[in-house]
Specification:
2 copies of one chain form a homodimer. Chain A has 388 residues and is of the alpha+beta class. Chain A is built from 12 helices and 18 strands. Chain A has a 6-stranded mixed β-sheet with strand order 4-3-2-1-5-6, with helices on both faces. In chain A, strands 7, 8, 9, 10 and 18 form a 5-stranded mixed β-sheet that branches. Chain A has a 5-stranded antiparallel β-sheet with strand order 12-11-13-16-17, with helices on one face. The N and C termini of chain A lie far apart (46 Å).
């Protein structure tokens, strides 16, 4: 299992750590304190579903030079010991007296001079996965060292995927492609939405997903109300549009795309929305380039939808993707993050057919110097029809 | 889907909110600010796997009286609108300029007097699911109102399960019982650990789980090294012990228990460890009572193992269970939380056979006035043998 828990050869983690340390040097950060599953997996290869248990905090410190140091609950030492990390300090968590803060303060105190700064992700799309009270106590204990925002340090590195990472995302997209092929047969067998969701998750596992962290979707006459709901016992009927969206996982990497199906022949209104969405994705595939901004992607998608006479849905029309279901940036008119070669992104145009009734397409791409390369298999131009 | 997204009738949420408000009044907290999926599900019924996306923060405010107020990204308004919450305030997240903090500050400012205190979970087993920078800005903006620790307020309410909640946990335990029955056939078909994990997840879905948030396990000659690792391509061999652990989910409630299987006839050493673990669980089932402390459960389990001549494993030997895979308290010698009737708990004794080689049992119970009632079907006294 040693190789498996690493996911990548050590060289990949050496590269990542080096890239972070270069950014840290520029930003005047003498260490990074990481607490979340994605950041910790990114620098160590430590991959487990045990994050589902909120009982214990986990800490990884990236020093100015050298390998990251893990300060973790003893229960994780065997698994962390199979990664490239060699400095693993543990305590018997959960400990109501001191849940790792003493050990962490000592570690940071040794690695960072009193005049130094410790970077912590504090910005958009981040959160601190440790008790807030302990964080405040840690900050007091580390003073005069400062705790500063390191969101930019981490996001500018993580957002550019290596070819090894792109291969992982392509693999899980291929698994989802295979599972989506099974949907018509699944619906034909039992057209109840919750059963369809259950069988779809089984199809993802059957196709090779390690686990299925996310499924959502909707179904309704001529569109659906939202794209984040779990499935209820609703029975699919002729005239319904069914959408399934998945974030399945292989080797710690996510896909995130959806597929739509019409129960019986779709109405002309739905066909027009479908055509507009397909055209909008085509426009983005044809014109998106490095050097553009996230807001440009929003403009391209919105413009194409409007040209087709469709009303763009609210919210973001695509986003980053990788070691979490969604990553920054967001394709909105307010996000001006630069798009760079190596970013893995979703194109997710949506159309509002009526208040509370939408249709959403989604594809996964990697942005190359020459433009987007599809990672998901392109959805068909016309809505697949399932005879109800 | 309206009923489904509620999970429970509104009366259940009225009861929960009332219980929180009674604790808040005692603690001098004029509102609670909740940011995490479990707390938000607990007071609203808002259930979605969309929490997998770290892009957006979600806020629910429990005022001193009346229904909770949701301050959430617009993408969640349709789903939140199907719960019992009627005051839903939204913004177009993610917004790099102001990701809901203005709206949240206004909401809290209206509900809490300037001399008041706002409770936030800050203690053991909690974390703040929003950007830390935004939290610090919010705190400054709300001054002179204080932000105080509300861990106790929430934990003392959430830890006592209603009969409706117990029924949900019993249902998902039954689903896992059924799936575990399929394990010998799964192993017989393909004795590769990652394939076994995949098929086991499919069996959980087949048996009726909505989704499978957690699987872990281990396998090795005469024991395994840890209980949090994902599966690798390791091929199971005669003499191996296989352990599978799952936190599957139905209606937002988790089970959390494991089962062990011997590949071929187990060694006398393994049989002794098995007998000691079985006896330890029996001892806890027979003697655990409300009014004891979490540390008493640890003492009972450890004492029973030592009486059988076994070496208890490190770490906690059981914990709470409910709307997350694990909840407080922890069965350690340091956790003195009072055990009360209505708590759902796991009994998780472990034995160290040799350094890096353990055997772990786990059952789920609800603590009644008269003692534990099993929610998982009691594991057999002797290790089930799979002929390799």
């Amino acid at each position: 299992m040693a190789e498996r828990s690493l996911v990548f050869p050590a060289a990949e983690f050496v590269r990542r750590t080096g890239a972070l340390q270069a950014r840290m040097a520029e930003a005047g950060q003498d260490a990074l304190l990481l607490t979340g599953p994605a950041d910790i997996f990114y620098v160590t290869g430590f991959l487990t579903r045990f994050w589902e248990s909120p009982a214990r905090p986990w800490f990884v410190v990236v020093p100015a030079a050298g390998r990251p140091v893990a300060v973790i609950p003893a229960i994780g030492s065997a698994l962390m010991g199979r990664t490239w990390i060699d400095d693993i300090r543990t305590w018997p968590a959960p400990d109501p007296e001191d849940d790792g803060i003493g050990l962490l303060a000592e570690t940071l105190g040794d690695l960072v001079p009193e005049s130094g700064a410790i970077g912590v992700p504090m910005g958009l799309e981040t959160s601190l996965r440790m008790p807030l009270g302990d964080y405040l106590r840690l900050a007091a204990r580390l003073a005069p060292r400062g705790l500063v925002d390191a969101t930019d340090t981490i996001q500018r590195v993580r957002e550019i995927k290596s070819e090894a990472e792109i291969a992982k995302i392509r693999a899980i997209c291929g698994i989802a492609d295979t599972a989506f092929e099974a949907v018509p047969a699944i619906v034909a067998e039992t057209p109840r939405l919750d059963t369809v969701f259950r069988s779809f998750q089984m199809a993802l596992l059957e196709a090779g997903a390690d686990w299925v962290s996310y499924t959502a979707g909707g179904a309704g006459p001529g569109g659906y109300g939202d794209v984040i709901s779990p499935a209820g016992p609703q029975v699919l009927r002729a005239g319904d549009l069914l959408m399934l969206d998945t974030g399945a996982v292989k080797d710690g990497y996510f896909c995130d795309f959806d597929r739509n199906f019409a129960l019986g022949k779709p109405s002309p209104e739905v066909c027009r929305a479908q055509a507009a969405l397909f055209a909008a994705t085509e426009a983005a595939l044809a014109t998106l380039r490095p050097g553009m901004r996230a807001s440009d992607a929003h403009r391209i998608l919105t413009g194409a939808l409007e040209k087709e006479g469709a009303t763009p849905g609210g919210g973001r029309l695509g986003h980053g993707l990788g070691v979490t279901l969604t990553e920054w940036p967001s394709f909105t008119d307010r996000d001006h993050t630069e798009l760079r070669a190596g970013m893995v992104l979703t194109l997710e145009p949506s159309v509002e057919l009526a208040p509370g009734r939408i249709l959403v397409h989604e594809e996964d791409i990697v942005l190359r110097a020459t433009g987007p390369e599809l990672l998901s298999r392109r959805a068909p131009a016309e809505l697949p029809v399932i005879v109800p």
